[in-house]
Amino acid sequence: MSRKIIHVDMDAFFASVEQVDNPSLKGKPVIVGGRTSKGVVCTCSYEARKYGVKSAMPGFIAAKKCPNGIFLPVRYWRYKEVSNQVFDILYNVTDIVEPLSIDEAYLDVSNITTSPIDIGHYIKSEVFKKTRLTISVGISHNKFLAKLASDWNKPNGIKVINEEMVPEILKPLSIKIVYGIGKKSIDKLNNIGVYTVNDLLKLPKDYFIDLFKNQSWELYNRLLGIDNRPVHPNRRTKSLGRETTLSSNTDDIEYLMHFLSLFSKDISYTLKKQYILSKTITIKIKTSDFFSHTKSKTIHHYTDSYDEIYSIACNLLKEININDDIRLIGLSVSNLSDKKIEQLTFL
Length: 347
Ligand SMILES: [Mg+2]
Known about the structure:
Layout: E1 5-10, H1 13-21, E2 30-33, E3 41-44, H2 46-49, H3 59-65, E4 70-72, H4 76-93, E5 97-101, E6 104-108, H5 116-131, E7 135-140, H6 143-152, E8 158-160, H7 183-191, H8 197-201, H9 205-212, H10 216-223, E9 239-250, H11 253-273, E10 276-287, E11 292-303, H12 306-319, E12 326-338, H13 339-345
Parallel strand pairs: 2-4, 7-8
Antiparallel strand pairs: 1-6, 1-7, 2-3, 5-6, 9-12, 10-11, 10-12
Helix pairs in contact: 4-5, 11-12
The structure holds magnesium ion.
Residues 9-10, 13, 103-104 line the site of magnesium ion.
């Protein structure tokens, strides 16, 4: 069955955030970064791009190309804050989100019945509602084509590349857009008159293999629009835990195990509800002299089972050699994985 992959990418992200935060910058050539002699441009607004300013360009060159450019310092914390709002929207759509950077991600929406184009419009309108910023959306059946699609009519674009459109849609494109072809290879190819995907497809097989070595097969497939790389979800929750300060200090193991049981139940419930599994169980205690002790165990499989978490936690508690009364006990699980993906790998 064909997959449904969405690639989303905020438009001129840092510069657009600055323009939203300070509306007097709207319509002006805003350049974020590159203010110092050694600095480089991080992002610039579309107005600045018209002058030939680009990301990663040294600031002094940008200043030459765009003398009336407004250079601003990088406010990373602010972009991160906006990025979190955007990712909240993406994670509302699906758990299978692979962030590529602060403003770019792949989503695998194959298991969602809503059409990907409706999901794309939903993401665009939610992002605009929450942040007043635009995001470009590309939809296709694999990552390579979805990313190509999001770039198609930036800014504020939405584009679908469906199976019937390939490989025809790829043939006239520059080889520069093909993920995995390095700059050196591009120069080499340009030198022998190869500029487009079609030119590259016509190259003699031996030359192709000689140039791309063990990457040849994958790259050749990509030129035909075939790309089987999965979307690797990067769970935001890194760990899940509960702890409590006891009403009175104690060394009563039974009493402490009672808390571990409550925590295990609560954690197991949350894991199941969120379709997450865990591999590492950690207990933490604080003694009456305020020392903290932690002990972890990583098991060979993923679990969300109360019984398993509880019994490992109890063993860990017994293994910690404490000669003092305990005032705080905590239990957490980490090394988390998405259950859906975990199950898929066993199919
Ligand atoms: Mg972007």
